[in-house]
Design brief:
Elements lengths: L5 H4 L5 H7 L12 E4 L2 E6 L4 E5 L5 E4 L1 H7 L9
Antiparallel strand pairs: 1-2, 2-3, 3-4
């Protein structure tokens, strides 16, 4: 008799894969889409598939979609 549960035997899923099952929205994919993360706007550059914005000092800052998912994002501005 095994003491392992089913959840222990299942392979770990990446956070992005889990987010899709909980109803969390996926990042937009249209070029020039805008999302907000930690009070800053990020625009999707279509030809490079990266999100570009500025940091607290106004310097350019680029994030991958995975980085933006980890930081948290929304379609409306919030200062979290």
């Amino acid at each position: 008799m095994s003491t392992r549960t089913e959840t222990e035997s299942e392979p770990a899923k990446p956070r992005a894969a889990r987010a899709g099952t909980t109803g969390a929205a996926a990042l937009p994919t249209a070029p020039c889409s805008v999302v907000w993360s930690k009070g800053h706007a990020y625009v999707l550059e279509g030809f490079r598939a990266r999100w570009v914005g500025v940091d607290d000092r106004g310097r350019p800052h680029a994030l991958s979609g995975a980085e933006l998912q980890r930081r948290g994002w929304s379609r409306t501005r919030s200062d979290n």
